[in-house]
Write the C-alpha coordinates for this entry.
Amino acid sequence: MSFRKTIVLLLTAFSICTTNFVYASYEPIIKAYRDERLWSELFKGGYLNFGYWENILPKEGKITVDERIRSSEALYTQVIDILDISKDEVIVEIGCGRGCGCAKIMKEYNPKRVIGIDITSEQIERSYKIHRLSFENYPNLSFIIAQSERTTLPDESVDKIYSVEVAQHFSSMHDFSKEAYRILKPGGTIVFTTYFSTSQQGAKAVREMILWVAEGKDNAFPIEEVEKAFSQNGFRDIQIQSIGDKVFEGYDVWSSQVLLPDCSNSYTRKWYEAFIKGYLDYYVIVAKKTNQLK
Ligand SMILES: C[S@@+](CC[C@H](N)C(=O)[O-])C[C@H]1O[C@@H](n2cnc3c(N)ncnc32)[C@H](O)[C@@H]1O
Protein backbone atom coordinates (compact mmCIF):
# COMPACT_ATOMS: atom_id res chain seq x y z
CA MET A 1 0.00 0.00 0.00
CA SER A 2 1.34 3.43 -0.91
CA PHE A 3 2.27 5.91 1.81
CA ARG A 4 -0.50 8.26 0.68
CA LYS A 5 -3.16 5.52 0.85
CA THR A 6 -2.01 4.54 4.34
CA ILE A 7 -2.31 8.13 5.56
CA VAL A 8 -5.82 8.47 4.06
CA LEU A 9 -6.89 5.16 5.68
CA LEU A 10 -5.48 6.18 9.05
CA LEU A 11 -7.17 9.57 8.91
CA THR A 12 -10.51 7.96 7.96
CA ALA A 13 -10.21 5.43 10.79
CA PHE A 14 -9.32 8.21 13.24
CA SER A 15 -12.29 10.29 12.13
CA ILE A 16 -14.70 7.32 12.46
CA CYS A 17 -13.35 6.46 15.94
CA THR A 18 -13.57 10.01 17.25
CA THR A 19 -17.04 10.53 15.74
CA ASN A 20 -18.29 7.37 17.44
CA PHE A 21 -16.63 8.44 20.65
CA VAL A 22 -18.51 11.75 20.73
CA TYR A 23 -21.74 10.10 19.62
CA ALA A 24 -21.49 7.53 22.40
CA SER A 25 -22.00 10.18 25.07
CA TYR A 26 -25.32 11.05 23.39
CA GLU A 27 -26.62 7.48 23.29
CA PRO A 28 -29.25 7.98 26.09
CA ILE A 29 -30.69 11.07 24.41
CA ILE A 30 -30.75 9.47 20.95
CA LYS A 31 -32.62 6.52 22.47
CA ALA A 32 -35.14 8.89 24.04
CA TYR A 33 -35.91 10.56 20.70
CA ARG A 34 -35.81 7.39 18.63
CA ASP A 35 -39.14 6.03 19.84
CA GLU A 36 -41.88 8.48 18.95
CA ARG A 37 -44.46 6.68 21.10
CA LEU A 38 -42.74 7.95 24.27
CA TRP A 39 -43.68 11.53 23.56
CA SER A 40 -46.40 11.36 20.92
CA GLU A 41 -49.13 12.71 23.25
CA LEU A 42 -46.97 15.38 24.86
CA PHE A 43 -45.68 16.75 21.57
CA LYS A 44 -48.50 15.98 19.22
CA GLY A 45 -48.36 17.86 15.94
CA GLY A 46 -44.72 18.16 14.89
CA TYR A 47 -42.85 20.56 17.13
CA LEU A 48 -41.09 19.13 20.15
CA ASN A 49 -40.62 21.91 22.68
CA PHE A 50 -42.17 23.46 25.80
CA GLY A 51 -43.74 26.35 23.86
CA TYR A 52 -44.01 30.12 24.33
CA TRP A 53 -47.47 30.68 25.77
CA GLU A 54 -47.96 34.45 25.81
CA ASN A 55 -51.51 35.19 24.59
CA ILE A 56 -52.05 31.44 24.02
CA LEU A 57 -52.46 29.86 27.47
CA PRO A 58 -56.24 29.93 28.13
CA LYS A 59 -57.32 31.64 31.38
CA GLU A 60 -59.68 28.74 32.04
CA GLY A 61 -60.59 25.40 30.51
CA LYS A 62 -58.36 22.91 28.80
CA ILE A 63 -55.56 23.67 26.36
CA THR A 64 -56.35 22.36 22.87
CA VAL A 65 -53.81 20.53 20.68
CA ASP A 66 -53.98 23.46 18.29
CA GLU A 67 -52.98 25.87 21.11
CA ARG A 68 -50.14 23.55 22.09
CA ILE A 69 -48.80 23.54 18.54
CA ARG A 70 -49.18 27.31 18.27
CA SER A 71 -47.16 27.76 21.46
CA SER A 72 -44.30 25.67 20.01
CA GLU A 73 -44.39 27.64 16.80
CA ALA A 74 -44.38 30.86 18.84
CA LEU A 75 -41.15 29.72 20.51
CA TYR A 76 -39.62 29.41 17.05
CA THR A 77 -40.93 32.86 16.15
CA GLN A 78 -39.01 34.32 19.12
CA VAL A 79 -35.79 33.07 17.53
CA ILE A 80 -36.62 33.61 13.86
CA ASP A 81 -37.60 37.26 14.43
CA ILE A 82 -34.16 37.97 15.90
CA LEU A 83 -32.41 36.15 13.02
CA ASP A 84 -33.79 38.66 10.53
CA ILE A 85 -33.30 36.29 7.57
CA SER A 86 -32.69 37.53 4.04
CA LYS A 87 -32.91 35.72 0.72
CA ASP A 88 -29.19 35.32 0.03
CA GLU A 89 -28.39 33.60 3.32
CA VAL A 90 -27.44 30.05 4.34
CA ILE A 91 -29.28 29.12 7.54
CA VAL A 92 -28.54 26.15 9.79
CA GLU A 93 -30.72 24.71 12.55
CA ILE A 94 -29.06 22.56 15.21
CA GLY A 95 -31.42 19.90 16.59
CA CYS A 96 -34.16 20.33 14.00
CA GLY A 97 -36.30 17.50 15.44
CA ARG A 98 -39.04 16.78 12.93
CA GLY A 99 -37.93 19.64 10.70
CA CYS A 100 -40.95 21.92 11.20
CA GLY A 101 -38.85 25.02 11.96
CA CYS A 102 -36.71 24.58 8.83
CA ALA A 103 -39.79 24.13 6.63
CA LYS A 104 -41.39 27.23 8.21
CA ILE A 105 -38.31 29.35 7.42
CA MET A 106 -38.10 28.02 3.88
CA LYS A 107 -41.77 28.81 3.23
CA GLU A 108 -41.77 32.25 4.87
CA TYR A 109 -38.33 33.58 3.87
CA ASN A 110 -37.12 31.32 1.03
CA PRO A 111 -33.40 31.88 1.77
CA LYS A 112 -30.56 30.51 -0.36
CA ARG A 113 -30.31 27.34 1.73
CA VAL A 114 -31.73 25.86 4.94
CA ILE A 115 -29.97 22.90 6.56
CA GLY A 116 -31.51 21.07 9.50
CA ILE A 117 -29.09 19.03 11.61
CA ASP A 118 -30.11 16.38 14.13
CA ILE A 119 -28.18 13.71 15.96
CA THR A 120 -31.05 11.19 15.90
CA SER A 121 -31.28 9.50 12.49
CA GLU A 122 -35.00 8.76 13.02
CA GLN A 123 -35.66 12.50 13.39
CA ILE A 124 -33.98 13.15 10.04
CA GLU A 125 -36.06 10.38 8.43
CA ARG A 126 -39.22 11.93 9.93
CA SER A 127 -38.20 15.38 8.67
CA TYR A 128 -37.79 14.09 5.13
CA LYS A 129 -41.09 12.20 5.32
CA ILE A 130 -43.18 15.02 6.84
CA HIS A 131 -41.84 17.75 4.56
CA ARG A 132 -41.66 15.75 1.34
CA LEU A 133 -43.92 18.23 -0.39
CA SER A 134 -41.75 21.14 0.68
CA PHE A 135 -38.72 19.56 -1.03
CA GLU A 136 -40.47 19.60 -4.35
CA ASN A 137 -41.08 23.32 -3.94
CA TYR A 138 -37.85 24.09 -2.10
CA PRO A 139 -34.91 22.00 -3.34
CA ASN A 140 -32.62 24.07 -1.11
CA LEU A 141 -34.06 22.58 2.07
CA SER A 142 -32.06 19.62 3.40
CA PHE A 143 -31.56 17.63 6.57
CA ILE A 144 -28.42 15.89 7.77
CA ILE A 145 -27.49 13.57 10.62
CA ALA A 146 -24.73 15.26 12.61
CA GLN A 147 -24.15 16.71 16.03
CA SER A 148 -23.79 20.12 17.57
CA GLU A 149 -20.04 19.82 18.15
CA ARG A 150 -19.34 18.26 14.76
CA THR A 151 -21.67 19.58 12.11
CA THR A 152 -19.53 18.37 9.15
CA LEU A 153 -20.13 21.74 7.43
CA PRO A 154 -17.19 23.65 5.90
CA ASP A 155 -15.47 26.57 7.65
CA GLU A 156 -17.20 29.96 7.31
CA SER A 157 -20.01 28.56 5.16
CA VAL A 158 -23.07 29.68 7.15
CA ASP A 159 -24.68 33.10 7.65
CA LYS A 160 -26.93 32.27 10.58
CA ILE A 161 -27.33 29.42 13.06
CA TYR A 162 -30.32 28.84 15.31
CA SER A 163 -31.54 26.20 17.72
CA VAL A 164 -34.70 25.64 19.77
CA GLU A 165 -34.65 23.59 22.97
CA VAL A 166 -31.62 21.48 22.13
CA ALA A 167 -28.60 23.01 23.90
CA GLN A 168 -29.74 21.61 27.27
CA HIS A 169 -28.58 18.23 25.92
CA PHE A 170 -25.11 19.30 24.84
CA SER A 171 -22.09 17.68 26.43
CA SER A 172 -19.96 20.79 26.19
CA MET A 173 -20.92 24.40 25.59
CA HIS A 174 -17.26 25.06 24.83
CA ASP A 175 -17.21 22.54 21.94
CA PHE A 176 -20.58 23.71 20.63
CA SER A 177 -19.62 27.39 20.57
CA LYS A 178 -16.25 26.53 18.99
CA GLU A 179 -17.99 24.61 16.19
CA ALA A 180 -20.57 27.37 15.69
CA TYR A 181 -17.75 29.92 15.43
CA ARG A 182 -15.91 27.74 12.90
CA ILE A 183 -18.84 27.35 10.48
CA LEU A 184 -20.18 30.91 10.73
CA LYS A 185 -19.04 33.49 8.22
CA PRO A 186 -17.51 36.65 9.73
CA GLY A 187 -20.44 38.89 10.66
CA GLY A 188 -22.64 35.81 11.25
CA THR A 189 -25.12 35.39 14.09
CA ILE A 190 -26.25 32.55 16.31
CA VAL A 191 -29.56 32.61 18.19
CA PHE A 192 -30.63 29.79 20.43
CA THR A 193 -33.24 29.23 23.09
CA THR A 194 -33.61 26.65 25.82
CA TYR A 195 -33.43 26.14 29.57
CA PHE A 196 -30.28 26.49 31.64
CA SER A 197 -29.62 26.63 35.37
CA THR A 198 -29.59 30.11 36.83
CA SER A 199 -26.33 29.53 38.77
CA GLN A 200 -23.90 26.83 39.98
CA GLN A 201 -26.14 26.28 43.01
CA GLY A 202 -29.19 26.10 40.76
CA ALA A 203 -27.44 23.46 38.64
CA LYS A 204 -26.85 21.30 41.72
CA ALA A 205 -30.50 21.59 42.78
CA VAL A 206 -31.72 20.85 39.24
CA ARG A 207 -29.57 17.69 39.13
CA GLU A 208 -31.24 16.50 42.31
CA MET A 209 -34.78 17.40 41.24
CA ILE A 210 -35.06 16.44 37.61
CA LEU A 211 -34.62 12.84 36.52
CA TRP A 212 -33.49 13.64 32.99
CA VAL A 213 -30.69 15.81 34.34
CA ALA A 214 -29.71 13.21 36.95
CA GLU A 215 -29.60 10.58 34.19
CA GLY A 216 -27.34 12.79 32.05
CA LYS A 217 -29.85 13.30 29.21
CA ASP A 218 -29.89 17.01 30.00
CA ASN A 219 -27.00 19.04 31.36
CA ALA A 220 -28.73 22.37 31.97
CA PHE A 221 -25.38 24.12 32.53
CA PRO A 222 -25.32 27.34 34.59
CA ILE A 223 -26.06 30.24 32.26
CA GLU A 224 -22.82 31.98 33.27
CA GLU A 225 -20.87 29.00 31.81
CA VAL A 226 -22.75 29.34 28.53
CA GLU A 227 -21.85 33.00 28.26
CA LYS A 228 -18.22 32.29 29.19
CA ALA A 229 -17.87 29.53 26.55
CA PHE A 230 -19.20 31.81 23.79
CA SER A 231 -17.02 34.69 24.86
CA GLN A 232 -13.89 32.50 25.10
CA ASN A 233 -14.49 31.16 21.61
CA GLY A 234 -14.55 34.63 20.10
CA PHE A 235 -18.25 35.58 20.02
CA ARG A 236 -19.11 39.20 20.79
CA ASP A 237 -22.27 41.22 21.60
CA ILE A 238 -23.61 38.30 23.63
CA GLN A 239 -27.14 39.01 24.80
CA ILE A 240 -29.12 36.82 27.18
CA GLN A 241 -32.82 37.29 27.79
CA SER A 242 -34.98 35.35 30.24
CA ILE A 243 -38.35 34.13 28.90
CA GLY A 244 -39.14 31.50 31.57
CA ASP A 245 -42.32 33.29 32.66
CA LYS A 246 -43.78 32.75 29.16
CA VAL A 247 -42.68 29.11 28.88
CA PHE A 248 -42.79 26.93 31.99
CA GLU A 249 -46.31 27.54 33.30
CA GLY A 250 -48.04 26.77 30.00
CA TYR A 251 -46.00 23.63 29.50
CA ASP A 252 -46.77 22.54 33.05
CA VAL A 253 -50.52 23.00 32.56
CA TRP A 254 -50.33 21.16 29.23
CA SER A 255 -48.34 18.22 30.64
CA SER A 256 -50.72 17.91 33.61
CA GLN A 257 -53.50 17.53 31.04
CA VAL A 258 -51.96 14.83 28.90
CA LEU A 259 -49.90 12.79 31.32
CA LEU A 260 -50.87 10.45 34.13
CA PRO A 261 -51.69 12.15 37.47
CA ASP A 262 -48.44 10.92 39.03
CA CYS A 263 -46.34 12.66 36.40
CA SER A 264 -45.24 15.32 38.91
CA ASN A 265 -43.05 12.59 40.41
CA SER A 266 -41.40 11.87 37.10
CA TYR A 267 -39.36 14.35 35.10
CA THR A 268 -42.04 16.20 33.20
CA ARG A 269 -43.58 18.62 35.69
CA LYS A 270 -40.44 19.28 37.70
CA TRP A 271 -39.25 21.99 35.33
CA TYR A 272 -41.91 24.48 36.44
CA GLU A 273 -41.13 23.75 40.09
CA ALA A 274 -37.41 24.31 39.43
CA PHE A 275 -38.24 27.60 37.68
CA ILE A 276 -40.51 28.79 40.53
CA LYS A 277 -37.75 27.95 43.02
CA GLY A 278 -35.29 30.02 40.97
CA TYR A 279 -32.99 27.16 39.95
CA LEU A 280 -33.78 27.09 36.25
CA ASP A 281 -34.82 29.58 33.58
CA TYR A 282 -35.56 29.58 29.86
CA TYR A 283 -33.29 31.89 27.87
CA VAL A 284 -32.86 33.37 24.41
CA ILE A 285 -29.16 33.81 23.66
CA VAL A 286 -27.82 35.87 20.78
CA ALA A 287 -24.12 36.06 19.85
CA LYS A 288 -22.19 37.50 16.92
CA LYS A 289 -19.04 36.53 15.10
CA THR A 290 -17.51 39.87 14.29
CA ASN A 291 -15.52 40.70 11.17
CA GLN A 292 -12.39 41.23 13.27
CA LEU A 293 -9.98 38.49 14.29
CA LYS A 294 -10.53 36.88 17.75
C1 LIG B 1 -36.50 18.82 22.41
S1 LIG B 1 -36.14 18.30 20.76
C2 LIG B 1 -36.32 19.85 19.89
C3 LIG B 1 -36.63 19.64 18.42
C4 LIG B 1 -36.96 20.91 17.66
N1 LIG B 1 -35.96 21.91 17.80
C5 LIG B 1 -38.30 21.44 18.09
O1 LIG B 1 -38.33 22.40 18.88
O2 LIG B 1 -39.32 20.93 17.63
C6 LIG B 1 -34.37 18.09 20.78
C7 LIG B 1 -33.79 17.54 19.47
O3 LIG B 1 -32.36 17.75 19.50
C8 LIG B 1 -31.71 16.61 19.00
N2 LIG B 1 -30.35 16.62 19.60
C9 LIG B 1 -30.02 16.35 20.89
N3 LIG B 1 -28.71 16.53 21.10
C10 LIG B 1 -28.19 16.94 19.91
C11 LIG B 1 -26.88 17.29 19.48
N4 LIG B 1 -25.85 17.28 20.33
N5 LIG B 1 -26.70 17.67 18.20
C12 LIG B 1 -27.75 17.70 17.33
N6 LIG B 1 -29.01 17.36 17.68
C13 LIG B 1 -29.24 17.00 18.96
C14 LIG B 1 -32.60 15.44 19.38
O4 LIG B 1 -32.41 14.32 18.56
C15 LIG B 1 -33.99 16.05 19.21
O5 LIG B 1 -34.49 15.88 17.92
About this structure: The beta strands are 90-94, 113-118, 141-145, 158-164, 184-197, 236-242, 280-288. Confidence is low (pLDDT under 50) at residues 3-21.
